[in-house]
Amino acid sequence: MRVIAVIAAAGWLAWASAAGQQQPFRAGVDVVTLEVAVLQEDKPIAGLTSRDFVVTDNGVRQSVEAVSTASLPVDLTVALDTSGSMEESTEPLANQLRTAVRGLRPDDRLGLVTFAWGVHELFPLQPIGPDVPFDEIKAGGGTSLNDALSGVLMHARPAGRIDLAVLFTDAVDTTSATTLAGAAEIARRSDVLLHVYIVRTPADVEVDSVLGRPDYHQLIDLATSTGGKLDVVLADNHIVNGLGRTLADLRTSYTLRFTATGVARAGWHALGVTIDKPGTFVVRARKGYFGG
To answer: pTM to 2 decimals?
Structure first.
């Protein structure tokens, strides 16, 4: 079964590379675009302008050329853990998806990926319509979480759109060919904004009360490196709640653009984003990018 998992992962990664439209990673960048969420006391802050943002690229302050609320159309890839632990939940998952995607707009697109022994694209990015095949979700087998993370992050950002991936999992990887460290390196090179939801059942919570809550710090670091986040949710209606929260978060964020100035083009560029206003703010943004 391990050999099968490796072959499946290799096929998925090859597909993901092709789906990235020639080049999944940035080869050379002068204009940098990033989504920025700004919160104060857990509430999004509206009405900020370019003068309110301080953006640095490898420590050099940049001139923010455009700031807008995130009204760009969204390319949303939903990745569902359909391993054996989810085997009794396939019908509720499909029903949740039908409800959750009502939060998408007419110019948004949806793609669906499932992962168990391997990673499977149920359908590519497409507008929401009456024929979306949610009923094809099947469960059973191991969990190729790291392979799924790698695949959904291997997209080139389409011009004029936001590339968003939302992944639901119990966070136990059993069959991936990719390591979590490898997936984290892909995240550093990706333009995809990633939100991860760790799905826990009441039984899981009871076990946690005895053994302690699992350590998710590596997954947290991976998600936050893209400008996204990780949340732990209960299994009941988690897709509806998770996608609703993610889309609401995205719609109240900002899209910043600047032309990298005063820094070498090649190599890793560490990004910093702060708010130049009185008050204490929480800012979520991509941690950096690779130039070429």
So the answer is: 0.86
Residue with tokens 């039984």: 203
d(CA 21, CA 27): 13
**3: Cβ–Cβ under 8 A, 6 or more apart, which residues?**
none
Which of the residue ranges 15-29, 172-186, 196-210, 211-225 would you say has the lowest mean pLDDT? 15-29
234-246 pLDDT, tens digit per residue, is 888 889 999 999 9
114: left (phi over 0), alpha (psi -120 to 50) or beta: beta
CA distances from 146 to 12, 155, 235 (A): 12, 16, 21
Domains of the chain: 2-25+71-251 (3.40.50.410), 31-70+254-291 (no CATH)
Q: How far apart are CA 97 and CA 239, in angstroms?
A: 7
C-alpha of 251 from chain center? 15
What digits encode the pLDDT tens for the residues 128-171? 877 777 777 777 788 999 999 999 999 777 878 999 999 999 88
Q: Which residue has the higher pLDDT, 84 or 142?
A: 142
Residue 170, both tokens: 């119990």
Tokens of 284: 């979520």
Alpha-carbon distance 163 to 152, whole Å? 10
Give me the DSSP letters along 181-205. HHHHHHHHT---EEEEEEEE-HHHH
- CB-based contacts of 161: which residues, under 8 Å, 6+ apart? 72, 73, 74, 75
pLDDT band at 89 (very low <50, low <70, confident <90, very high): low
